[in-house]
Amino acid sequence: MSSSIPLIEIFSSLQGEGMLAGYRQIFIRLPGCNLDCAYCDTVIEASSVCRVEASPGCGQFKEIAQPVALETVLNLVRRWCTQLPNAHHSISITGGEPLLHDDLLAQWLPELNILLPIHLETNGTLSAAVSRLIEHVDFISMDIKLPTAAATPALWDEHRRFLEAAHERDVSVKVIVGELTVEQELVAACKLVSGVDEEIPFIIQPVTDRDGRVSVSPQRLLQLQAVASRLLADVRVLPQMHRFLEVP
């Protein structure tokens, strides 16, 4: 089996979303996605080269040929951990939708997990893939896509199966909301989560415009938080922090 994966980029930065916001991570971004969300602003197509930060946090990138070998990434992570001891909380496996590459991640994650904890960022739809990899993952940040906000079909069954599988680990749920978010959809997401465990952290993330401004009013966010709090024990409103800090 191949031990190389096409990657988009590898860099060191602050996590800007979810339960681990504020922690520094090594980000490994994989290409491709099985969804097409209206608010997505992430490059998900792999090119002929992978962008790799020249040194952790410098903001300058070099290019390496695709696909990228596991040993190349392991050596990079080891070097960055030596350069900046204890600076990185974990490795963020992100995308796109990284679970589309579960065959190769089954080889990569056990090796990477020796070096740092693994944080999986996912759209929360590929339950069979997460079940396959769960023993090598420490933290899971899953999205629940609200149909009117994401402009996707309803995915309630897929999200429920995923959350049931992900609940074996430290999992949190994120929903992205806009001014036109339908409260009934937020309630449906909260009921889905409470049906698994009402203590699961539930994060309401307002849409950030391309100019970096939050496009949801504080009053609307407080209203949505109040709705969710009737059904769940841990509801937080967190914008995309990295957009304000102007880090990757």
Task: Describe what this molecule looks like in 3D.
The chain has one domain: Aldolase class I (TIM Barrel, Alpha-Beta Barrel), CATH 3.20.20.70. α2 runs parallel beside α3 and α5 (about 155-165) runs parallel beside α6 (about 185-195). The chain is built from 8 helices and 12 strands. It has about 250 residues and is of the alpha/beta class. The strands form 2 sheets. A 10-stranded mixed β-sheet has the order 5-4-2-3-7-8-9-10-11-12. Strands 1-6 form a two-stranded antiparallel ribbon. It has helices at about 70-85, 100-115, 125-135, 145-150, 155-165, 185-195, 220-230, 240-245; strands spanning about 5, 10-15, 25-30, 50-55, 60-65, 70, 90-95, 120, 140-145, 170-175, 200-205, 235. β8 (about 120), α3 (about 125-135) and β9 form a beta-alpha-beta unit. The mean pLDDT is about 90.
Q: What is the number of helices?
A: 8
Q: Please state the oligomeric state of the protein chains shown.
A: single chain
Radius of gyration, whole Å: 18 Å
- The stretches of 5 or more residues where confidence is low (pLDDT under 50) are none
Order of helices and strands: EEEEEEHEHEHEHHEHEHEH
Content of β-strand:
15-25%
Strand segment count: 12
Domain count: 1
Give, in spatial order, the strands making up the sheet with the most strands. 5-4-2-3-7-8-9-10-11-12
CATH-derived architecture: Alpha-Beta Barrel
Task: State the major sheet.
Answer: 10 strands, mixed
Highest CATH level, the class: Alpha Beta
End-to-end C-alpha gap: 32 Å
Write down the CATH topology. Answer: TIM Barrel
Give the CATH H-level superfamily. Answer: Aldolase class I
What is the 3D shape? globular
Indicate the mean pLDDT: 92
Structural class: alpha/beta
Portion in helices? 25-40%
